[in-house]
Specification:
The complex is a heterodimer. By secondary structure, chain A is an alpha/beta fold. Chain A has one domain (about 1-270): Rossmann fold (3-Layer(aba) Sandwich), CATH 3.40.50.300. Chain A is about 35% helix and about 25% strand. Chain A has helices at about 1-5, 15, 65-70, 100-110, 125-135, 140-150, 155-160, 170-185, 200-215, 230-235, 250-255, 260-270, and strands at about 25-35, 40-50, 55-60, 80-90, 95, 110, 190-195, 220-225, 235-240, 245-250. In chain A, the strands form two sheets. In chain A, strands 6-7-8-3-9-10 form a six-stranded mixed beta sheet, sandwiched between helices. Mean pLDDT of chain A is about 90; it is low at about 1-20. Chain B is mainly alpha-helical. Chain B is about 75% helix and about 0% strand. Chain B starts with 5 loop residues before the first helix and ends with a helix. The mean pLDDT of chain B is about 90. Classes of the chains: A alpha/beta, B mainly alpha. At the A-B interface, helix 4, helix 5 and helix 8 of A face helix 7 and helix 8 of B.
């Protein structure tokens, strides 16, 4: 069956790339290849990510979608055996150049992880962590940042009287929104989200999705999700990854209603994955 | 399905249970005997006078004071040296060193070092600290030797504590643009500290009972002044006890037993502190 899909492969979607020209790009990915040791995980990825939009990345498990997301803030280098070729331009700089500082990149590009991962500290200290590592010591400034960030993550009202509580005592959904607030506190331009709702119940998921809609006014968001309905609900553009290749990258409505590639169609109609 | 030989299986289970229970009892019996012998012999000699007195020619007047102070000072040297070098090594190996064959080789050999007999460390200390560095048979030489002895254990236990900090938490810190050092200081060390401290205290309590390497690097068998600097002559409790047991008169065995009680109390205290730290500060993920 997979062979049939490969035969049905159509040329890459040059036609759609023109449509993005009206929106400025925050990332431009050129011919990105990635290996874990000798296993190639990403093949020749070319993808422009627009500013102030939600870009969803979907695909079956092991397709490389999380790996791709982590190349955008070079978090993928936490695995020591990773090798990459190609370029990812952020602004007008290639973030894979030797002189590019990851600390600088990750300040501009925040990340929210699959499993809520608060520090074993108070809610306040969690959110103030980022500003503190960047040298802000003034208590008043920190107070303001914490309040603004928690409001930004739509959790201020729930937690304003519990700022001194250990974040571990919160529910999963609250923890995840504290983690989002923690990412916002550094005032990034981009927020990467790696299946941020996969560990949450439906109500918390709805809250986080609503929040993402709110956040895209001020941030560019790239979200990996295994949930196609979620991608359809919240994203402006959707990329479909399969076996380390970018199969199709379209306006979300277009991709779900009228996919160009046979493999995309098979995936979104539930024939595999 | 028809169960075959049910009675046989149940019986076998009972027999094994009894065997395992007996093994436990044997260990316990000897432990109780040990405590009984030490307590019954030593209790009569253990009083405040015993703790604060110097060794003396008569059993009734002898005390463990210089040995105790010597042991505590020695542990001070050991703690400072082993803790700084041990934790630094563990941080380098776990967080900074490239994960390659050389690093693996170093890791395995540090674990091997932990199993080297203590007397070998004594010879090492004699060669290097006593003669080569010219420290002589002084407290500092003993402390450095003992620090080397427990260093591998400190490194290995600290590594384990560092490794137990979940990757997700480290990622959260790196993901906000924190440098490696900031992440180590603000996230990794606080989370690993209870484990590291527990390891250190348990290593120290191993060190405080060691005798062999200190005999080689020249702890005195009897001193009548307190060590007042790192370059003083010194003795430690186990050596003092050993020396008393070597005397022929029966009363000295009781004096030695009283020394063992003091040593055991200090050991139990240290272990209790380790358990307390672990329970109080342990972060559960």
């Amino acid at each position: 069956m997979i062979e049939m899909q490969n035969k049905a492969q159509t040329p890459k979607n040059q036609s759609t790339e023109k449509k993005t020209e009206k929106v400025p790009n925050i990332y431009e990915v050129d011919d990105l290849n990635l290996w874990y040791g000798n296993d190639q995980a990403l093949y020749e990825i070319n993808m422009d990510i627009p500013q102030y939009q939600v870009t969803a990345i979907i695909g079956p498990s092991g397709c490389g979608k999380s790996t791709f997301l982590k190349t955008l803030n070079r978090m993928v280098e936490m695995v020591p055996i990773v090798k990459t070729t190609g370029a990812i331009r952020y602004g007008d700089q290639n973030i894979y150049e030797d002189k590019y500082r990851v600390e600088d990149l990750r300040t501009k590009v925040g990340m929210v992880f699959q499993k809520p991962n608060p520090f074993p500290k108070s809610v306040y200290d969690n959110v103030a962590y980022g500003p503190r590592i960047h040298g802000i010591k003034d208590k008043k400034t920190l107070d303001q940042i914490v309040e603004k960030s928690l409001k930004g993550a739509a959790i201020w009202d729930e937690l304003k009287d519990r700022l001194d509580e250990n974040a571990f005592g919160l529910s999963g959904g609250q923890q995840q929104r504290v983690c989002i607030a923690r990412a916002l506190a550094v005032e990034p331009d981009v927020i990467l989200m790696d299946e941020p709702t996969s560990a949450l119940d439906p109500i918390s998921t709805a809250k986080v999705e609503e929040l993402i809609q709110e956040l895209k006014k001020d941030y560019s968001i790239v979200i990996v999700t295994h949930n196609m309905q979620q991608a359809a609900r919240i994203s402006d553009r959707t990329a479909f990854f399969l076996n380390g290749e970018l199969v199709e990258y379209q306006e979300t409505d277009q991709l779900f209603q009228n996919p160009e590639d046979k493999r995309t169609e098979d995936y979104i109609t539930g024939r595999f994955g | 399905m028809e169960s075959k030989n049910l009675n046989g299986r149940v019986l076998k289970n009972r027999v094994m249970k009894t065997l395992f229970f007996s093994a436990t009892v044997i260990a316990l019996v000897f432990l109780v005997l040990l405590f009984y012998r030490v307590l019954s012999q030593g209790w009569g000699y253990l009083n405040w006078n015993y703790i604060t007195s110097f060794p003396a020619p008569y059993p009734e007047e002898a005390g463990i004071w210089p040995g105790m102070i010597g042991s505590l000072m020695l542990m001070g040297v050991v703690a400072v040296v082993a803790v700084t070098i041990g934790i630094s090594t563990a941080i380098y190996l776990e967080e900074y060193s490239p994960k390659n064959k050389l690093a693996d080789f170093i890791r395995v050999n540090i674990q091997n070092l932990a199993g080297v007999p203590s007397i070998v460390f004594g010879l090492l200390g004699l060669t290097f600290f006593v003669y080569l560095f010219g420290i002589g048979y002084r407290l500092l030489a003993g402390g450095l030797t003992m620090a080397l002895l427990i260093l591998p254990v400190v490194v290995v236990s600290s590594q384990e504590a560092l490794r137990s900090v979940p990757t997700e938490v480290k990622e959260a810190s790196y993901g906000m643009g924190a440098s490696k050092w900031q992440t180590i200081v603000r996230v990794i060390l606080p989370a690993a500290l209870p484990g590291i401290l527990t390891g250190i205290i348990l290593s120290l309590s191993r060190g405080i009972g060691e005798t062999a390497p200190l005999i080689i690097v020249g702890a005195a068998t009897a001193i009548y002044t307190l060590p007042d600097s790192l370059l003083s002559k010194y003795t430690v409790m186990p050596i003092q006890i050993y020396k008393w047991t070597a005397r022929p008169q029966e009363e000295w065995q009781f004096v030695a037993a009283a020394g063992i009680i003091v040593l055991l109390i200090i050991l139990l205290l240290m272990n209790a502190i380790a358990v307390w730290i672990r329970n109080k500060y342990q972060t559960r993920y």
